[in-house]
Specification:
4 helices; 10-stranded antiparallel β-sheet; single chain; alpha+beta
């Protein structure tokens, strides 16, 4: 199955014509001629496997995993706030196992450059890498290991601590997920509203989608709705209440061969 990238390629890409000095062009042609005569061909360098995200992929052994690209590890809480701090993936056993027998390790991307940029008042220093984001959405990322230290699942939950504008769009993360793993083959169910749940701006979203391949069991659920008591206007003060709604996406990738331990 061919996977597309997390981020779409936009339009409006312009090409710039550059003129190469004759002496440089001559050197390049000469070098190419030497390679052709000698029968030597330049071999392309093997690119590291990016996995699902930053090298994380199902089947990895916690003992052999690196911290490259990650700045902090903690015990997870089912896609919620971090708990006990960890120094390495291999310390997953310090975390409380879930009912399915897996140990959740909360992982944050390395954000050192972001903090340096804030300190020197230069946000561009981080080169667009701000916090733990996937497809432009702030997320809580977790890796789940079995008792033998094999990575059996990955969990992405949009971060409720994000800025209001980002949180409002959190339900859209589901579209990036479905595009990443191909739009075909998903089975989706629109869940009925619970008592008191109402639309947000005329939109009510409470959808769960699943897709299964030999390599992955994928589940994504997204909500955009108001819970009972959530209103645009405070009934007492009559002042606007921005952010009084639910907007989130929860995405999980499981190893379909995993059996609960």
């Amino acid at each position: 199955m061919r996977l597309t990238s997390w981020l779409p390629v936009g339009r409006g890409v312009f090409q710039t014509r550059r003129y190469i000095p004759l002496r440089v062009l001559t050197s390049v042609l000469a070098a190419g001629l030497v390679l052709q005569v000698s029968g030597t061909r330049a071999q392309p360098r093997a690119m590291p496997d990016p996995g699902e995200i930053r090298g994380l992929k199902l089947g990895l052994d916690a003992q052999s995993m690196t911290l490259d690209g990650f700045g902090e590890l903690d015990c997870g809480s089912n896609g919620g706030a971090p708990r006990q701090g960890l120094d390495h993936w291999s310390q997953f056993g310090k975390c409380r196992p879930e009912q399915n027998g897996l140990y959740e390790v909360y992982a944050r991307f390395d954000d050192e450059n972001e903090y340096i940029g804030k300190a020197i008042d230069e946000p561009r220093y981080a080169r667009g890498r701000t916090g733990t984001q996937v497809a432009g959405h702030p997320v809580i990322l977790s890796a789940l290991f079995d008792r033998d230290g094999v990575l059996r699942a990955l969990r992405f939950v949009t971060d409720p601590r994000a800025a209001p504008t980002e949180r409002r769009m959190a339900h859209m993360f589901r579209l990036a997920v479905m595009n990443r793993y191909g739009p075909d083959g998903w089975t989706c169910t629109d869940l009925p509203p619970a008592t008191g749940e109402t639309p947000v701006g005329g939109v009510f979203l409470k959808r769960r989608c699943e897709k299964r391949t030999p390599e992955r069991a994928l589940t994504v659920e997204a909500h955009l709705l108001r819970k009972p008591g959530q209103n645009d206007i405070d009934p007492i003060t009559e002042q606007p209440r921005p952010g009084a709604y639910e907007s989130w996406t929860r995405f999980e990738i499981f190893d379909p061969s995993y059996k609960q331990q």
